[in-house]
Amino acid sequence: MGMFNNFLHLLKINKEKMTVLVVGLNNSGKSTIINHLKKKTHEPGSNIAIPTVGFNIEEFYSQGVLFTMIDMSGAWKYRNLWQHQFKNCQGIIYVIDSSDKMRMVVVKEELNILLQHSDLLHRNIPLLFYNNKIDCESSLSCVNIAAALDLSSITDKPWHVSSSSAITGDGLEEGVQWLIQQIRLVNHNHKKVKHKKRDKRK
């Protein structure tokens, strides 16, 4: 048993690692999405999660990457905690309840606050928007979500809107795949800049 644990520990050390911040308003489906990605169980409806209080940190493997997901509460009194994790993340997942049209203005306000924060303002950090609850009849399309949030105005960061259902898992893996590619690209470009700086010093 000890040898097996040591093997898992070494595997964990050698894996590619990514830290991702998961935000969004309460009841948007953040924790349920993370539970589905963790693949705790394949029973229908068993991935549904209870609301997060404060934040939770979840760790799991997906597509060859060891993910650390920081799941932030979307309740009004906890949203000010989001900013404390901006420095620690390599990517951000913003989960949107596409059927909750009444709160879309609030979604946009919180997004603008996030984008204007000093820890993110000048960072080329990938933003993945999960247009969640697409299985609801009243859900908005990705095009409508992008228009409602004025995503076309985000020109300094890569972003992508992925239709998703936290219950069925539709669209989740595709979104994660895009995020992995973008984080790798950012890391690669960052390394190239570092090498150029070293060459100039020489």
Automatic annotation (TrEMBL):
It is a peripheral membrane protein. SUPFAM superfamilies: P-loop containing nucleoside triphosphate hydrolases. GTP binds at residues 24-31, 74, 132-135. It is found in: Cell projection, Cilium membrane; Cytoplasm, Cytoskeleton, Cilium axoneme; Cytoplasm, Cytoskeleton, Cilium basal body. GO terms for molecular function: GTP binding; GTPase activity; metal ion binding. Mg(2+) binds at residues 31, 52. The keyword Magnesium applies. Keywords: Cell membrane, Cell projection, Cilium biogenesis/degradation, Cytoplasm, Cytoskeleton, GTP-binding, Lipoprotein, Magnesium, Membrane, Metal-binding, Myristate, Nucleotide-binding. PANTHER family: ADP RIBOSYLATION FACTOR-RELATED. This is ADP-ribosylation factor-like protein 6. It comes from Glossina fuscipes. The lineage of its organism: Eukaryota, Metazoa, Ecdysozoa, Arthropoda, Hexapoda. The gene is LOC119636039.
